[in-house]
Amino acid sequence: MRPFGIQKLYLKDEPTNTVQAASARLRSRQTITPNSCDIITITGNEECYIAQFIHHYLYLGFSNIFIGINNCQDNTPAILKKIAKIYPKIFIYNTDQPQRLHRQSGSYAALIDEASQRTDSSHCLVVDIDEYWFSNKPNRSIASYLRQFDRFDLMFTNWLCTYGQSHQTCFTDLTRAKIDLKKSQGKSIFNYSIPLRKLRAHVPDVESPEKAVFVGNDGKEIKWMNDANKRHANASLPQHLRKVNKLHQHLNKSQNSAWILHQIVRSELEYSLRLFEPRAAKHPEPFKTNRHGWIMPKESRQERQFFKSILSKKSFNKRYIKAYEKFLRQCQIKNIVEKSFNRITEKQVFCKINQLNHQKIDAYQSIWREIFQGTRFLPYLELRLQTKKRLRINDCS
User: Fold this and answer.
1) Which residue of 128, 151, 164, 170 has the fewest C-beta atoms within 10 A of its own C-beta?
2) How far apart are CA 161 and CA 145, in angstroms?
3) From the centroid of its chain, how far is CA 23?
């Protein structure tokens, strides 16, 4: 039996070499379960969301979940250890060293190296903790979904970005949220049989990419190779499809499609707290730089009606929520998860701002002015810049 603790991972080679060795190991396996899919994810301070995330992928029949924790100061590890005692498919690792040396690519390399030694799955999906895969039939398992397609190497799955969802609601609840279907951004399911060069957040880099069977979330092939790529000696699959796939598929519920619901901007408090956690792919900075303010997008009425008709099915939601409540009780994590919600407060955001020294506030003012726009906390940061001292919370009112 494997221990239920957290194993520390160390990279002794470059990420590319590690991924290529792991890929060779995956391709040489004797036993492979068809139409099965693993999850690879890296995480930090996710105590409010990690249980929801794991339950979701277990509920839809994903196989193994390989989780790399780094730079974590909250109860995420404690919650994960309790879940792993009940669910042996959950593998928990500390990726501080790979993350420190090579950022996101280091953590991904270390995780797929571990996966290559443990899994008998046929496919893998790399996602973040705020991303939820679902199909047009939300109760459909991943095995049932994959079974309907001919063999492919990579399947690009569009993001359905939500704005304003809260930790207090199910991922299917769009009542107070705005949505925006991304035409050329998302994540991808890849077949372990394809030779990998590098594991990336959206689409992996593969050997001989011109030979790869690259399809969209409806199973139709994506023609990504353009004239510019043909001239490039080391062409690689694009992380996004802005230049090669300008139109996403038609919104037809009868099609066998799937999507990644990405909670890109949660409630104002959750969004503001998240801004103090740097991007995993970049070197440490005081703020998350790939956000543009707590601003709701203009919705497409057609998209809202389409996804609401899928996600608001009472039968699915009732079963899903009931299963999640059972999952919390079974893993004995209900109290610790609920306590984590109590830390999502206005006071916590003010404390985070007060922890910044004036030098950082001055140096990063162009960034925080953009990412905090639309929130109640932007005036407080302006006051910190002007006064050069930490302020009391009442000074912001």
Assistant:
1) 151
2) 22
3) 22
How far is Cα 307 from Cα 31, in angstroms, rounded to an integer? 38
Q: State how far the Cα of 245 lies from the Cα of 297, in Å rounded to an integer.
A: 22
Indicate the residue type of 194: I
pLDDT bracket for residue 1 (50, 70, 90): very low
Q: Are the CB atoms for 156 and 222 separated by under 8 Å?
A: yes
Range 50-87 burial, b when 16+ CB lie within 10 A, else e: bbbbbbbbbebebbbbbbbbbbbeebbbebbbbbbeee
3-class DSSP assignment, residue 66: strand
**What pLDDT does residue 218 have?**
86
> Is residue 14 exposed (0-12), middle (13-18) or buried (19+ Cβ within 10 Å)?
middle
**pLDDT band of 201, cuts 50, 70, 90:** very high
At position 184, the amino acid (one-letter code) is S
Give the DSSP letter string of 223-291: ----HHHHH-TT----SS-TTT--SPPP--TTS--EEEEEEEEE-HHHHHHHTTS--TTS---SS--S-
Place of tokens 């999640």: 324
Q: Are 36 and 123 in contact (CB under 8 A)?
A: yes
φ, ψ of residue 386 in degrees (nearest 5) = -75, -40
- pLDDT confidence of residue 396: 46
Taking the C-alpha atoms of residue 165 and residue 206, their distance in angstroms, rounded to an integer, is 35
The number of C-alpha atoms within 13 Å of 272 and in the hemisphere containing its C-beta is 24
Closest-CA residue to 377 (of 397, 357, 392, 361): 397
Buried b (16+ CB within 10 A) or exposed e, 110-137: bbbbbbbeebebbbbbbbbbbbbbbbbb
CA dist., res. 186 & res. 241, Å (int):
9
Strands (E), the chain: 7-8, 33-43, 65-69, 90-94, 121-126, 131-135, 154-165, 178-191, 196-198, 205-206, 214-215, 258-266
Angle between helices 50-59 and 314-331 (to 10 degrees): 120
